[in-house]
Amino acid sequence: MTQTRDEFEARLRRIGDERYHDKHPFHHLLHGGRCTPDQVRAWVINRYYYQSRIPMKDAAFMSRVEDPKLRRAWRSRIEDHDGTAENEGGIARWLKLAEAVGLDPDYVASEAGILPATRFAVDAYVRFVRDKTLLEAVASSLTELFAPKIHAERIEGLLANYDFANDVSMSYFRKRLSEAPKDVAFGLAWVLDHADTAEKQDAAANALIFKTNVLWAQLDALYSAYVEPARIPPGAWVPGTGLALAKAS
Protein backbone atom coordinates (compact mmCIF):
# COMPACT_ATOMS: atom_id res chain seq x y z
CA MET A 1 0.00 0.00 0.00
CA THR A 2 1.35 3.40 -0.98
CA GLN A 3 2.17 5.57 2.01
CA THR A 4 1.22 9.22 2.24
CA ARG A 5 3.98 11.76 1.76
CA ASP A 6 4.24 12.34 5.51
CA GLU A 7 4.20 8.62 6.29
CA PHE A 8 6.92 7.92 3.77
CA GLU A 9 9.12 10.74 5.05
CA ALA A 10 8.72 9.38 8.57
CA ARG A 11 9.75 5.95 7.29
CA LEU A 12 12.92 7.39 5.76
CA ARG A 13 13.77 9.24 8.97
CA ARG A 14 13.31 6.05 11.00
CA ILE A 15 15.98 4.40 8.88
CA GLY A 16 18.42 7.04 10.09
CA ASP A 17 17.27 6.69 13.68
CA GLU A 18 17.97 2.96 13.52
CA ARG A 19 20.91 2.64 11.13
CA TYR A 20 22.97 5.83 10.80
CA HIS A 21 26.64 5.44 11.65
CA ASP A 22 26.58 7.94 14.51
CA LYS A 23 25.66 4.88 16.57
CA HIS A 24 28.82 2.96 15.64
CA PRO A 25 31.29 2.26 18.49
CA PHE A 26 34.13 3.86 16.54
CA HIS A 27 32.35 7.21 16.49
CA HIS A 28 31.72 6.96 20.22
CA LEU A 29 35.46 6.51 20.71
CA LEU A 30 36.32 9.33 18.32
CA HIS A 31 33.86 11.90 19.60
CA GLY A 32 34.56 11.02 23.21
CA GLY A 33 38.30 11.64 22.90
CA ARG A 34 39.21 7.97 23.39
CA CYS A 35 40.90 7.37 20.03
CA THR A 36 44.68 7.23 19.91
CA PRO A 37 46.44 9.58 17.46
CA ASP A 38 47.00 6.66 15.09
CA GLN A 39 43.33 5.65 15.22
CA VAL A 40 42.39 9.21 14.30
CA ARG A 41 44.89 9.12 11.44
CA ALA A 42 43.49 5.82 10.18
CA TRP A 43 40.01 7.34 10.17
CA VAL A 44 41.22 10.42 8.26
CA ILE A 45 43.06 8.31 5.67
CA ASN A 46 40.16 5.99 5.00
CA ARG A 47 37.45 8.64 5.10
CA TYR A 48 39.42 10.53 2.44
CA TYR A 49 38.65 7.75 -0.02
CA TYR A 50 34.94 8.26 0.58
CA GLN A 51 35.26 12.06 0.30
CA SER A 52 37.20 11.78 -2.96
CA ARG A 53 34.55 9.55 -4.54
CA ILE A 54 31.55 11.73 -3.71
CA PRO A 55 32.02 14.05 -6.72
CA MET A 56 32.73 11.02 -8.90
CA LYS A 57 29.44 9.37 -7.96
CA ASP A 58 27.64 12.68 -8.49
CA ALA A 59 29.22 13.03 -11.94
CA ALA A 60 28.13 9.48 -12.75
CA PHE A 61 24.61 10.37 -11.66
CA MET A 62 24.51 13.57 -13.72
CA SER A 63 25.71 11.75 -16.83
CA ARG A 64 22.38 9.88 -16.84
CA VAL A 65 20.11 12.83 -16.07
CA GLU A 66 18.24 14.24 -19.09
CA ASP A 67 16.45 17.02 -17.17
CA PRO A 68 18.57 20.21 -17.19
CA LYS A 69 16.80 21.47 -14.07
CA LEU A 70 17.88 18.40 -12.11
CA ARG A 71 21.42 18.64 -13.45
CA ARG A 72 21.65 22.30 -12.42
CA ALA A 73 20.41 21.48 -8.93
CA TRP A 74 22.85 18.59 -8.56
CA ARG A 75 25.90 20.37 -9.98
CA SER A 76 26.64 22.26 -6.77
CA ARG A 77 27.37 18.98 -5.00
CA ILE A 78 30.39 18.42 -7.23
CA GLU A 79 31.55 21.99 -6.73
CA ASP A 80 31.13 21.71 -2.95
CA HIS A 81 33.67 18.88 -2.89
CA ASP A 82 35.97 19.60 -5.85
CA GLY A 83 35.95 23.36 -5.25
CA THR A 84 35.66 26.39 -7.50
CA ALA A 85 37.66 29.59 -8.03
CA GLU A 86 35.95 31.02 -4.95
CA ASN A 87 35.60 27.87 -2.83
CA GLU A 88 38.50 25.52 -2.07
CA GLY A 89 36.12 22.58 -1.70
CA GLY A 90 35.62 19.75 0.76
CA ILE A 91 38.45 17.56 -0.51
CA ALA A 92 41.00 20.33 0.08
CA ARG A 93 39.52 20.97 3.53
CA TRP A 94 39.82 17.27 4.35
CA LEU A 95 43.51 17.35 3.45
CA LYS A 96 43.94 20.23 5.90
CA LEU A 97 42.53 17.92 8.56
CA ALA A 98 45.00 15.25 7.44
CA GLU A 99 47.91 17.66 7.88
CA ALA A 100 46.60 18.74 11.28
CA VAL A 101 46.63 15.16 12.58
CA GLY A 102 50.25 14.73 11.44
CA LEU A 103 49.78 13.07 8.07
CA ASP A 104 51.44 13.98 4.80
CA PRO A 105 48.55 15.27 2.64
CA ASP A 106 50.23 13.91 -0.48
CA TYR A 107 50.29 10.47 1.08
CA VAL A 108 46.60 10.67 1.96
CA ALA A 109 45.70 11.92 -1.54
CA SER A 110 47.67 9.05 -3.09
CA GLU A 111 45.09 6.65 -1.59
CA ALA A 112 47.87 4.30 -0.56
CA GLY A 113 47.05 2.29 2.52
CA ILE A 114 43.27 2.38 2.17
CA LEU A 115 41.61 -0.59 3.86
CA PRO A 116 40.30 -3.18 1.38
CA ALA A 117 36.83 -3.03 2.94
CA THR A 118 36.79 0.76 2.57
CA ARG A 119 37.51 0.42 -1.14
CA PHE A 120 34.84 -2.25 -1.60
CA ALA A 121 32.19 -0.27 0.27
CA VAL A 122 32.87 3.07 -1.38
CA ASP A 123 33.25 1.62 -4.87
CA ALA A 124 29.96 -0.23 -4.37
CA TYR A 125 28.30 3.09 -3.60
CA VAL A 126 29.64 4.68 -6.80
CA ARG A 127 28.39 1.70 -8.83
CA PHE A 128 25.01 1.85 -7.10
CA VAL A 129 24.51 5.50 -8.06
CA ARG A 130 25.78 4.82 -11.58
CA ASP A 131 23.61 1.77 -12.26
CA LYS A 132 20.39 2.03 -10.25
CA THR A 133 17.33 4.12 -11.08
CA LEU A 134 17.55 7.86 -10.60
CA LEU A 135 15.10 7.57 -7.72
CA GLU A 136 17.30 5.03 -5.94
CA ALA A 137 20.40 7.11 -6.63
CA VAL A 138 18.87 10.24 -5.14
CA ALA A 139 17.41 8.33 -2.20
CA SER A 140 20.83 6.92 -1.35
CA SER A 141 22.05 10.48 -0.77
CA LEU A 142 19.48 11.06 1.97
CA THR A 143 21.87 10.06 4.72
CA GLU A 144 22.47 13.83 4.56
CA LEU A 145 19.23 14.09 6.55
CA PHE A 146 21.21 12.89 9.55
CA ALA A 147 24.61 14.44 8.78
CA PRO A 148 24.29 17.87 10.46
CA LYS A 149 23.80 16.22 13.85
CA ILE A 150 26.92 14.07 13.52
CA HIS A 151 28.97 17.03 12.21
CA ALA A 152 27.93 19.16 15.17
CA GLU A 153 28.76 16.35 17.61
CA ARG A 154 32.09 15.79 15.88
CA ILE A 155 33.10 19.44 16.03
CA GLU A 156 32.21 19.63 19.72
CA GLY A 157 33.91 16.33 20.59
CA LEU A 158 37.10 16.91 18.63
CA LEU A 159 37.55 20.48 19.87
CA ALA A 160 37.07 19.32 23.45
CA ASN A 161 39.39 16.33 23.29
CA TYR A 162 42.16 16.71 20.69
CA ASP A 163 45.00 19.22 20.33
CA PHE A 164 44.83 19.13 16.52
CA ALA A 165 41.26 20.45 16.45
CA ASN A 166 40.95 24.13 15.56
CA ASP A 167 39.08 26.36 13.12
CA VAL A 168 41.26 25.28 10.20
CA SER A 169 41.17 21.53 10.81
CA MET A 170 37.42 21.62 11.53
CA SER A 171 36.62 23.67 8.42
CA TYR A 172 35.29 20.68 6.48
CA PHE A 173 32.68 19.88 9.11
CA ARG A 174 31.69 23.51 9.70
CA LYS A 175 31.12 24.03 5.98
CA ARG A 176 28.98 20.91 5.72
CA LEU A 177 26.66 22.34 8.37
CA SER A 178 25.48 24.82 5.74
CA GLU A 179 25.96 22.71 2.59
CA ALA A 180 24.22 19.49 3.66
CA PRO A 181 20.83 21.01 4.60
CA LYS A 182 20.62 22.67 1.17
CA ASP A 183 21.36 19.41 -0.60
CA VAL A 184 19.04 17.29 1.47
CA ALA A 185 16.11 19.72 1.19
CA PHE A 186 16.22 19.29 -2.58
CA GLY A 187 16.91 15.55 -2.49
CA LEU A 188 14.18 14.77 0.01
CA ALA A 189 11.57 16.77 -1.87
CA TRP A 190 12.60 15.06 -5.13
CA VAL A 191 12.30 11.58 -3.62
CA LEU A 192 8.94 12.35 -2.00
CA ASP A 193 7.65 13.71 -5.32
CA HIS A 194 8.81 10.74 -7.38
CA ALA A 195 8.25 7.80 -5.01
CA ASP A 196 4.55 7.75 -5.85
CA THR A 197 3.88 4.01 -5.66
CA ALA A 198 4.48 1.41 -2.97
CA GLU A 199 7.08 -0.26 -5.18
CA LYS A 200 9.01 2.98 -5.68
CA GLN A 201 8.80 3.81 -1.98
CA ASP A 202 10.25 0.39 -1.12
CA ALA A 203 13.05 0.90 -3.63
CA ALA A 204 13.90 4.34 -2.23
CA ALA A 205 13.84 3.10 1.36
CA ASN A 206 16.09 0.17 0.47
CA ALA A 207 18.48 2.55 -1.29
CA LEU A 208 18.80 4.60 1.88
CA ILE A 209 19.38 1.42 3.89
CA PHE A 210 22.10 0.44 1.41
CA LYS A 211 23.84 3.78 1.95
CA THR A 212 23.73 3.44 5.73
CA ASN A 213 25.33 0.02 5.26
CA VAL A 214 28.10 1.59 3.17
CA LEU A 215 28.89 4.06 5.96
CA TRP A 216 28.64 1.43 8.69
CA ALA A 217 30.91 -1.00 6.82
CA GLN A 218 33.67 1.60 6.63
CA LEU A 219 33.65 2.02 10.41
CA ASP A 220 33.52 -1.74 10.95
CA ALA A 221 36.69 -2.00 8.89
CA LEU A 222 38.41 0.75 10.90
CA TYR A 223 37.40 -0.76 14.21
CA SER A 224 38.59 -4.21 13.21
CA ALA A 225 41.93 -3.03 11.87
CA TYR A 226 42.96 -0.26 14.26
CA VAL A 227 41.11 -0.63 17.52
CA GLU A 228 42.55 -4.14 17.50
CA PRO A 229 45.85 -3.38 15.69
CA ALA A 230 46.85 -6.99 15.11
CA ARG A 231 44.17 -7.19 12.43
CA ILE A 232 45.56 -4.60 10.01
CA PRO A 233 45.19 -6.29 6.61
CA PRO A 234 48.07 -6.52 4.11
CA GLY A 235 48.55 -3.29 2.17
CA ALA A 236 46.61 -1.11 4.60
CA TRP A 237 48.15 1.87 6.37
CA VAL A 238 50.62 0.99 9.11
CA PRO A 239 51.02 3.47 11.98
CA GLY A 240 54.27 5.37 11.72
CA THR A 241 54.14 5.69 7.92
CA GLY A 242 52.74 8.44 5.74
CA LEU A 243 53.48 11.15 8.30
CA ALA A 244 54.28 14.78 7.55
CA LEU A 245 58.00 15.39 7.82
CA ALA A 246 57.56 17.93 10.56
CA LYS A 247 55.56 15.45 12.59
CA ALA A 248 57.61 12.37 11.90
CA SER A 249 60.75 13.35 13.81
TrEMBL record:
Domain Thiaminase-2/PQQC: residue ranges: 10-220
InterPro entries, A to Z: Haem_Oase-like_multi-hlx, PqqC, PqqC-like, Thiaminase-2/PQQC
EC number per UniProt: 1.3.3.11
Keywords, alphabetical: Oxidoreductase, PQQ biosynthesis
GO molecular function: pyrroloquinoline-quinone synthase activity
Reactions catalysed, as given in the entry: 6-(2-amino-2-carboxyethyl)-7,8-dioxo-1,2,3,4,7,8-hexahydroquinoline-2,4-dicarboxylate + 3 O2 = pyrroloquinoline quinone + 2 H2O2 + 2 H2O + H(+)
Its job: Ring cyclization and eight-electron oxidation of 3a-(2-amino-2-carboxyethyl)-4,5-dioxo-4,5,6,7,8,9-hexahydroquinoline-7,9-dicarboxylic-acid to PQQ.
UniProt-recorded name of the protein: Pyrroloquinoline-quinone synthase
Native species: Rhodovulum euryhalinum
The gene coding this protein: pqqC
